[in-house]
Structures are given as structure tokens and as C-alpha cells.
UniProtKB/TrEMBL annotation, chain A:
<keyword id="KW-1003">Cell membrane</keyword>
<comment type="similarity">
    <text>Belongs to the ABC transporter superfamily.</text>
</comment>
<dbReference type="InterPro" id="IPR013563">
    <property type="entry name" value="Oligopep_ABC_C"/>
</dbReference>
<dbReference type="Pfam" id="PF08352">
    <property type="entry name" value="oligo_HPY"/>
</dbReference>
<dbReference type="GO" id="GO:0005524">
    <property type="term" value="F:ATP binding"/>
</dbReference>
<keyword id="KW-0067">ATP-binding</keyword>
<dbReference type="GO" id="GO:0016887">
    <property type="term" value="F:ATP hydrolysis activity"/>
</dbReference>
<dbReference type="Pfam" id="PF00005">
    <property type="entry name" value="ABC_tran"/>
</dbReference>
<keyword id="KW-0813">Transport</keyword>
Automatic annotation (TrEMBL), chain B:
<keyword id="KW-0547">Nucleotide-binding</keyword>
<dbReference type="InterPro" id="IPR003593">
    <property type="entry name" value="AAA+_ATPase"/>
</dbReference>
<dbReference type="InterPro" id="IPR050319">
    <property type="entry name" value="ABC_transp_ATP-bind"/>
</dbReference>
<dbReference type="GO" id="GO:0055085">
    <property type="term" value="P:transmembrane transport"/>
</dbReference>
<dbReference type="InterPro" id="IPR027417">
    <property type="entry name" value="P-loop_NTPase"/>
</dbReference>
<dbReference type="GO" id="GO:0005886">
    <property type="term" value="C:plasma membrane"/>
</dbReference>
<feature type="domain" description="ABC transporter">
    <location>
        <begin position="26"/>
        <end position="255"/>
    </location>
</feature>
<dbReference type="GO" id="GO:0015833">
    <property type="term" value="P:peptide transport"/>
</dbReference>
<keyword id="KW-0813">Transport</keyword>
Length: 325, 323
């Protein structure tokens, strides 16, 4: 079966005064129908940029300089803009971190839902209203008739994010890219949104890319996980394998940085240093300066190599199962 | 137990006002809408003992930041008191670490001025030694002292937070109020800063009021925990009691709702509903519209914080049935 989305050797670059900066490099991954892929990394790792690159939303001085974005096996990068516009919102939808930024503050919820519906479908007034009500109802918004008339600022953060999700799912897209959609929400509200997204994607078989800095959120949601560092995927595979026995020292470090429930006090095992700026990447493995296992073999950028079954890792000194970094 | 370094009694803070006499008169005649007064914090009491970390946890709008600002002396309480029984000898006994290391440092001042100004003004160091003093503070907080002449923009988020911590430590406080001090940082940097806080506690005997919405961090760093909901303390006690056997249904919902690394493909069964507006809190127990245990009494009578007998207090009519 062809995956819903397949990225092949994607490269996104920015033309800066100080030279070309490659923000994404050698990015290859795929998501199948009904699968949830967690894309994890720290700020500046390129995880959000991956979402924008897939949707062709990179604006100058940035552009996708290499590779393919295949939707159902067809490369969408060479498509003219008019064709691309037909895919956005209909086949590929996005959900962002801050719904206050993605919803128009001066339009009623109903208007915003109508605009998205009419962008891809011919519908009568009553059909639009019925679809809008159904969409709000589906994401668990109480009293949807009243909510259609309100403006975004009249809703709470959790409700706004529900509206954003409802809008993203209006055309039953094949692929949803969710970029930190619960980061701005409170714990109890985050739980509600996670439950909602989980249910909708599982029921409809939507492929989902969940971009997050929070490993724990991804652990509870994803089937597969890809870890990014300084613009490259450093490790990828089934969630259980990777979280139980990470092979890349960076993944190990990330997991160890999260406080373990039940283990109070004591020191967290921290990763020394910080992620290098993309303008100032070390030659070779970008993680080597922070890595306890680095040797002279790390002076060359390692390839993403198969590791065990169904896994890949970009490291010349991968960790054995259970080994500390 | 030794004496507390800080005692908070019945602390409350109201925002908004009744307006002048014209507004009050109009309201009396029914010609103006009722005044919107928000009781951001109400009747919070606790003691802070030397060298301990008291974690304050709650969701947005629960009043935890307002509480922190009142304790740090940045905001006048409208009721209650903050007392320091042993306030002698320290110039500035309390310092605050803020969430956003980008807006809490003056962008036009060099790091050495940011850190060095307060100790110089308060005569904690002489003008001739201020440079060495700043270098020592930077070193202690893990910043290379050779960066003392740089401006804040030259630092990453984690480094800036270290500058903020060095600035707070420079006046030799005994209490640090940390308001979401690690929330804006990346995971690997978060661990570094949490470790720094713990090292400083061991070295300097600091006492912390650590405010966060992140239960993982709170569980890791705290000795005791205060859980807040809509301006009130709903549960307080030793960290292991709170996390192992929460007595308040809200505390339980918070702990159960937290994603964890070992919960894979979890089925989330979140508590329903939104956090009510603090402008118009529900009558009785503020949590009752979302509470799975709510009964008639919860709708009518507000539960008070009761002793549960294991060093913990909970404000719930049904607390016993939870443990």
C-alpha cells in the first residue's frame, strides 16, 4: 500500500546574507493511513519547518531546494500553485499551536467555517449550516448553534482549539499536520484535545503528523516517532522500541531529561551544552560536541542507517538496548 | 521542625474596583451593570521552612502567579499577611525568577550591570570588587564570566535564564520565588536549570516557592505541594502523599491527565468542561461542575481546607472516599 505521505530526501534552505542555510536536510519519512507519527525535537530542530515544507508554505528567502513530497505516490512539489491550493485544506490540513493566531479575530465562527467549506465544495446555505453544526458537534462543543455566532475571543483556549480542529477536519483530509496543538493548553484541557484527536483520526483512518517538543505527549499518542536534531532526523521507528531502547545518544538524553514520575528529587541527567545554530553547524555529526560517545569517526555526517527491525538511526556509535549515553 | 522563614496567612487579592460613588449610585438604581471584581487569590495560608521547596501547581487563572507576586512583595495583598519572622540581616531576602528570560532582562544593559547593580547599591560588595563578585555569580550559575560585557540578546534562552538566576542570587536572598521559571525552555535545557536550582539549594540553603503548571517538574523538585483551583488552595501536603494518593478529585484529575513516557497509546479519559471564569465562580465548591464525585452539598456549601491526618489538608467534602 502506498503511504499517504512520503518525504524523500527533502531539503529546505534559506538564502541569508551570510550564505545559504540548510534548515532541513536529507529528510525522508512516511506516514500511512490511520497512522500517527510523532515528530519530536527542540526549538530550532526544524520540526515545524517540516510541516510548512510539506504544505509548500515556505516563503522567501526560504524554499524547498531538493527532494520530493509525495502525496499518495504523487510528487506535489512541481504542481502549479492553483493545483496546490486545491490540496490544502482538502487533502492536507494543518492545526497550529495558537488558535488565536489561526482564527480570524473579526469573523464569526460560522463565517470562518463557511469560507473553508465553500473553498472546495459547492453547497447551499442550509447545507453549509448543517455541516458547520455537525463539525462543531463532532469536536464536542456544547450548544453549537450559539457557538456559530460568536467571535474567537469569546471562546476559551480549549474551545478555540476545538474550533480549529473542526475546521481542519471539514473536508475529511487524508493527512493532518498538527504543530504543537496542545502546548498552549492547560493539563486538563490538553487531555480533552488529545482524546478528541485520537478518536477522530482512528475512526476515519486519517494519517496524522503530530509535531511536538513534548516526548510524553507523543508517547501517549503516536505509533511511530521521528526525532529531529539541527535539521536532520537522527532516529526513527516504532514508538515502543525507541522510547524503551533509544539508539541515538540524543534521544537517550531527551528521554533522561524528562523527570520520571515517582522518582522525586535527585539530579536529572542533563545533556550538556545546547543545540548549535544552523548558521554555525559543526562539520560532521551536529550532536558530536554534546555527545559523550563522540570519536574522530563522528567528523563526517553519519547516514540514516537501518537499525534492527523497522528502525533507522543516524549515528556511528548507536547505543545497545538499555545502555546509558 | 525549625521556625518558618515565611508565613502566609489568609492571603487574598482582588482585582477591579467598585468604582466611584457615581458608578456605585448608578448600580444601585439598576442603571449600570454590576462591577466585575475578580477574586484572583482567596484565603491562602502556608508556612515556608528553611531549605524546602514548596511547589505551587494549578492551571491558568488559578491565581498561582498572583500568589507568587504577593509573596515576593511585587503586589499588595487586599487581605491577609505575608510575614518573615526572621527578616534581619539580609538586604533583599526574597527574589523572583520569571518565566520569560527574554522580557525579564533589560535588553540595553550589559550582563555585568544586570547582575552587579543591585549588590553595589545595597553595599553587598564594594565598587572595586564588583567585577569579581559578578564573575563569581556567573560562574556559580554556569555562565562563562568572560561574557560579562555582552548584552542579553547574545545569549540563548537557557543562558538568559541563568543570567536571571545570577541576578537574583547577587543580593544573597534566602527565598527564591520561581514563577514558571523553566516552562519556556527546551526539555534538555529545562533539566540543566532544574539541576542548577537543586545545586544552589544544597550550596546556599535556599528556600523555594516554585510555581509551575508542569506536574512532572513539580513532582521532581518539591518537598511539599500546594494545589490551587480558581484562587483557592484545594490540597496541600508532602509531595509523596499528594502524588501517590491525591485526596482532592481535582488533584487526581491533574495527575491522571498528565502524559507520561510510560503511557503509550493511552486512552485519555479527561475530566469534562472548562475552567470556570474567576469573574463568576460557581457557588459551593468551585470544582463541582466538573467533579465526578459532586453531590448536593458540593453545590451549596464551599468545602474548607481540612486536616487529613497525614500532614496533608484537602478542601473536599468527599476527600475521605478518595484516599
Amino acid at each position: 500500500m502506498t503511504p499517504v505521505l512520503e518525504l524523500r530526501d527533502l531539503q529546505t534552505s534559506f538564502e541569508m546574507p551570510e550564505g545559504t542555510v540548510h534548515a532541513l536536510r536529507e529528510l525522508s519519512l512516511s506516514v500511512s493511513r490511520g497512522e500517527i507519527l510523532g515528530l519530536v525535537g527542540e526549538s530550532g530542530s526544524g520540526k515545524s519547518l517540516t510541516g510548512f515544507s510539506i504544505n509548500r508554505l515556505i516563503s522567501p528567502p526560504g524554499r524547498v531546494t531538493k527532494g520530493e513530497v509525495r502525496l499518495h505516490g504523487r510528487d506535489i512539489l512541481p504542481l502549479p500553485d492553483s493545483e496546490m491550493r486545491k490540496l490544502r485544506g482538502r487533502k492536507i490540513a494543518m492545526i497550529f499551536q495558537d488558535p488565536m493566531m489561526t482564527l480570524n479575530p473579526v469573523l464569526r465562527i460560522e463565517t470562518q467555517i463557511r469560507d473553508v467549506l465553500l473553498a472546495h465544495e459547492k453547497l447551499s446555505k442550509s447545507e453549509v449550516r448543517a455541516r458547520a453544526l455537525a463539525a462543531l458537534d463532532e469536536v464536542g462543543i456544547p450548544a453549537p448553534e450559539e457557538r456559530l455566532r460568536v467571535y474567537p475571543h469569546q471562546l476559551s483556549g480549549g474551545m478555540r482549539q476545538r474550533v480549529a480542529i473542526a475546521i481542519a477536519l471539514l473536508h475529511k483530509p487524508d493527512l493532518v499536520i498538527a504543530d504543537e496543538p496542545t502546548t498552549a493548553l492547560d493539563v486538563t484541557i490538553q487531555g480533552q484535545i488529545l482524546a478528541l484527536v485520537q478518536r477522530l483520526c482512528r475512526d476515519r483512518g486519517t494519517a496524522l503528523i503530530w509535531i511536538s517538543h513534548d516526548l510524553a505527549v507523543v508517547a501517549g499518542l503516536a505509533d511511530r516517532i521521528a526525532v529531529m536534531y539541527a535539521g536532520r532526523i537522527v532516529e526513527e521507528g516504532p514508538i515502543d522500541d525507541i522510547l524503551d531502547a533509544p539508539a541515538h545518544p540524543y534521544t537517550r538524553g531527551l528521554i533522561d531529561s524528562v523527570p520520571v514520575p515517582g522518582q522525586r528529587g535527585g539530579r536529572l541527567r542533563q545533556i550538556p551544552g545546547r543545540m548549535p545554530a544552523l548558521t554555525d553547524l559543526p562539520t560532521g555529526c551536529a550532536f558530536a560536541p554534546r555527545c559523550a560517545r563522540a570519536t574522530e569517526n563522528c567528523a563526517e555526517v553519519p547516514q540514516l542507517m537501518p537499525f534492527g527491525e523497522d528502525r533507522k538511526v543516524r549515528c556511528v556509535h548507536p547505543l545497545a538496548a538499555g545502555e546509558a549515553a | 521542625m525549625s521556625d518558618p522563614v515565611l508565613s502566609v496567612r489568609g492571603l487574598g487579592r482582588r482585582f477591579g474596583s467598585e468604582g466611584d460613588f457615581v458608578a456605585r449610585g448608578l448600580r444601585k438604581l439598576g442603571l449600570a451593570p454590576p462591577a466585575s471584581v475578580v477574586q484572583a487569590v482567596e484565603d491562602v495560608s502556608f508556612d515556608l521552612y528553611p531549605g524546602e521547596v514548596l511547589g505551587v501547581v494549578g492551571e491558568s487563572g488559578c491565581g498561582k502567579s498572583t500568589l507568587g507576586r504577593m509573596v515576593a512583595g511585587l503586589l499588595e495583598p487586599t487581605s491577609g499577611t505575608v510575614t518573615r519572622p526572621d527578616a534581619e540581616g539580609r538586604a533583599l531576602p526574597m527574589q523572583m525568577i520569571f518565566q520569560d528570560p527574554f522580557s525579564s532582562l533589560n535588553p540595553r544593559k550589559r550582563v555585568k550591570a544586570l547582575i552587579g547593580e543591585a549588590p553595589r547599591v545595597h553595599r553587598l560588595t564594594s565598587p572595586s570588587e564588583v567585577e569579581a563578585y559578578v564573575a563569581d555569580m556567573m560562574d556559580r550559575c554556569g555562565i562563562d564570566p568572560s561574557y560579562a560585557t555582552r548584552f542579553p540578546h547574545a545569549f540563548s534562552g537557557g543562558q538568559r535564564q541563568r543570567v536571571g538566576i545570577a541576578r537574583a542570587l547577587a543580593v544573597k536572598p534566602e527565598i527564591l520565588v520561581c514563577d514558571e521559571a523553566v516552562s519556556a525552555l527546551d526539555v534538555s535545557i529545562q533539566a540543566q536549570i532544574v539541576n542548577l536550582f537543586m545545586d544552589l539549594r544544597d550550596e546556599l540553603g535556599l528556600t523555594y516557592l516554585f510555581i509551575s503548571h508542569d506536574l512532572g517538574i513539580i513532582e521532581h523538585i518539591s518537598d511539599r505541594v500546594l494545589v490551587m483551583y480558581l484562587g483557592r488552595a484545594v490540597e496541600t501536603g508532602p509531595v509523596d502523599r499528594i502524588f501517590d494518593a491525591p485526596a482532592h478529585p481535582y488533584t487526581r484529575a491533574l495527575i491522571d491527565g498528565v502524559p507520561r513516557l510510560d503511557r503509550r497509546r493511552a486512552i485519555y479519559s479527561p475530566i469534562k468542561g472548562d475552567i470556570p471564569s474567576p469573574v463568576d465562580p460557581p457557588p459551593g465548591c468551585a470544582f463541582h461542575p466538573r467533579c465526578p464525585l459532586a453531590t448536593e452539598i458540593c453545590r451549596v456549601e464551599r468545602p474548607v481546607l481540612r486536616d487529613m491526618g497525614d500532614g496533608r489538608q484537602a478542601a473536599c467534602h468527599h476527600a475521605e472516599s478518595q484516599i
